[in-house]
Predict the structure.
Amino acid sequence: MKVSPQEVARIAALARLGIDQDRLDTFAAQFNGILDYMDLLAQVDTEGVEPLYSPVDGPTRLREDKAESRHSREELLASAPETDGAHFVVPKIV
Amino acid sequence: MSDLHTMTLAGLREALAAGKIGAGEATAATLERIAAVEPKVRAFVTVAGERALAEARALDARGPDPARPLWGVPVAVKDVIAVKGMPTTCGSRILEHFEPCYDAFVVRRLREAGAVIVGKTNMDEFAMGSSTEKSAFGPTANPWDTTRVPGGSSGGSAAAVAAGQCFGALGTDTGGSIRQPASFCGCVGLKPTYGRVSRWGCVAYGSSLDQIGPMARTVQDTALLFQAIAGFDPQDSTCVDAALPDTPAALAACEDLAGLRIGVPREYWGQGLAPEVEAACRAALDAAAARGATLVPVELPHTPYAVAAYYIIAMAEASSNLARFDGVRYGLRDKDARELLDMYVRSRSRGFGEEVQRRIMIGTYVLSAGYYDAYYRKAAQVRRLIRQDFAEALKRCDVLCGPVSPVTAWPLGAMDADPVQMYLMDIFTISLNLAGLPGLSLPVGLGADSGLPVGLQLLGPAFGEARLLAVAGVLERALGPLPAPAGL
Amino acid sequence: MPVYEAVIGLEVHAQLRTESKLFCACSTRFGQEPNTNVCPVCAGMPGTLPVLNARAVEYAVMMALAVGCRVNRVNVFARKNYFYPDLPLGYQISQFDLPLAEGGSVTIDAGAGPKVVGITRIHMENDAGKSIHSQAENVSFVDLNRAGTPLIEIVSEPDMRSPEEAEAYLRALHSVVTWLGICDGNMEEGSFRCDANVSIRPVGQREFGTRTELKNMNSFRNVRRAIAYEIARQEDLLADGGAVVQQTRLFDADKGVTHAMRGKEEAHDYRYYPDPDLLPVEISETMIADLRAALPELPAARRARFESALGLPPEAVAALTADRALSDYYEAAVAAYDEPRKVANWMLSEMLRRLNDTGVGVADCALAPEGFAAIVRMVEEGAVSQKSGRDMFAALFAGGGDPEAYAREHGLAQVSDSAALEAAVDAVLAANPAEVEAYRAGKTKLMGFFVGQVMRATKGQANAKLLNEIITARLG
């Protein structure tokens, strides 16, 4: 197995996800199955090939430096799970 | 008015423009149809009945407007696309109650064109899936056989169109998510060239792969929707400022396929194709030849690597695109968590389904130190080779064609066991997203064995949507329409 | 016991003085009510997308050119992935493999002569918001006003060897960014921030020792203090047989110490990859050439010129090149009246005093540099008295105007015509023979009396200096 269940748990933590202990083995098996499939790419000769990260050619567009305000604080805080009316409120890091 | 839903979008809009039907009437009939069929199909996450009626009546108050090409036409929008003041759930618990304070660019365009948005359609969670079974709100059923999947991830839009619950719908396509459900549900679906339609307001899954596109019952309907939503948007840095031809006009002007070279990629017609799919698609090829097209054998040699390359890239991009769903500013937050890290983990673990979590984790892995070159960078190199394959093939032909899917719609639950099995079903659609080219799915018949719709894919060069639609239009006329799904 | 040398590298973040944020049109104005400079883009709402600010790119290129970097004509934004409440997207949009610029330098002098400090790279990135941690409750308050503000990160080579060198380098960078006008340079407000990487090694060893990263130093002085403390701490640690642990340490300004950050230090895997919502940035040759041509003379070059060409002493040079606006004002004044030292004296006394008293910048001085120069000239040439000159400057500073006209209107013109003054002196001496006798007998204090009399007769407009000379000459 390429990636152990412990390693899978570590990746989950990196992504701020939690996998239950009892599901970890199944999940790890599926995880490895997918990675094994992806190893297919090793068969392709990519010597000297530039990676293609976007189908669109550059350059990125530049925007004029002008300030505009289209949304009020109320609108932006409207979906906040917890707010004091001015801030987003979150539990502290311990 | 109970068979208003059998009209095409084009037909309805003419009737609306001529004042034969009112916008309020059309919307009310649509809502009736939705209600009648929803218990079986479950295509919608949100039906915005009251709001749609209010909008339609407001349109009626001012009368038909010839400058607005979709005046009064009821349409549906995939729930991954932001509509202000309505829930935009992306088929996920983590956004179950989220209402954006902004409209997607395409939604603004639809409104400017006078369309009435009747609701948001169901989808695989965050567009990650090929069957709409991964929605947190339950699967959508295929109107042709409600024990089967409608395809995905735009299954809700495809089913809603096929079931007559709207006259057209928007979907999104990252690896085939418009084309495959269109083919499973017997409607037309177009994935535009990457950069043709603005992604502003489309919740990102694979940012370099995603495109919003139209789905409708006929080619002409699809062209009308496409024309309304395509075009430059300065708010999307990947949106291209290219001239937009008058697509419906191009469609109308094309009567046969004389002089057209249709490329037939060896890799798309080989083994693995269900016989009924192959038969229906070959019949379509024959019809094309009969209309004047020349068939040219071509090759897309890197096809066997497309699925692997796609999933590496899509999952990598998704892993960071979904990092913003952290319970801080919007969306689900686990209120029991007393501490920040705990809050992140609980909110995301509760809010995301298993498939989404799986993809986020694979994406995280393939970008991590030590693996980036072997996976992500390698996949991006293969991506360039795949794009080159298309460029080479398109030197020898004008469009390419092949089946959309190796099989017709499978039964609900059939692909649960092994994720990779489902991924491999994307083999014919996925390369196009890597290359960024446009593709269209056209229903070409019902499978001889299953009686379920079969879709043929037309692929073309960048910004060549007009030609794809034109060719599809000719074929559509040659083959005749599919019957409506029985039993609805 | 080996002798250790310190190896110091600095990472400086400078906020760019653009109107709007790096990837959205929100205002960058400081000090606003929380979450009022926020939009769906910088709040990381679903479906939103970034569009790059043109001026931010210009400012970044200007900085790169000003410190001699090689601009990468094509450079790429990359996502730096991590989770924190003030990072709305769950990633920072930064630059990794292909940054904006590489390979420049800055020359500093920490007292031991000029030294070149290398600059490894400069890249663009967006700033995070702010988390305010509540003391009372178990919560933090997140304000996203700052999230998305354009930053340039300037990474130095580990070329510095002392806290003083580090401070000198920081001041040099600060001088350039403020001179160019691309950054406020306000360390307290956070528009100019600095982290330090500090390690020690035995002198002569080529390998670097284990380094620590210092944060939370919000003034030049604190940077120097923190680094000094850390060097000593590491030396003590090694002397006691311990080992330096690679970690992030925060400076406590009150106690003057650094301490390790609380909580488990997770080794960061940022999983950088090119941001697919953006395309590569392309900087044209024309843009580089135009910006290079438009670069002002930089502080170091101007200092050198003031010393050599204008012959100003070092303290004057330093004071006249601390601030670009003041320096430009001075140059314009000298262009109008070619007496660099005299103009410098007036700048350093009258101008600086007024600026300090009123707390405004020279930009708020309504009197044009040519007018300032005119005042200096009028005083030096004796057209008005020193005192009148000072009074005129005070009067015209706020409202502007033409000094010559002002002098005429207010009758400030001194009588410097020798013949006229001699006549006036003769008249006074003739009218006061007793005092003349007394003066010649030794009561030299009577000079004041004679001067006063002539002043009265000329209504205070006699050129005092000349007057003294003439009376002295007449009285023998």
Remarks:
- The radius of gyration of chain C is 30 Å.
- Chain C is about 40% helix and 20% strand.
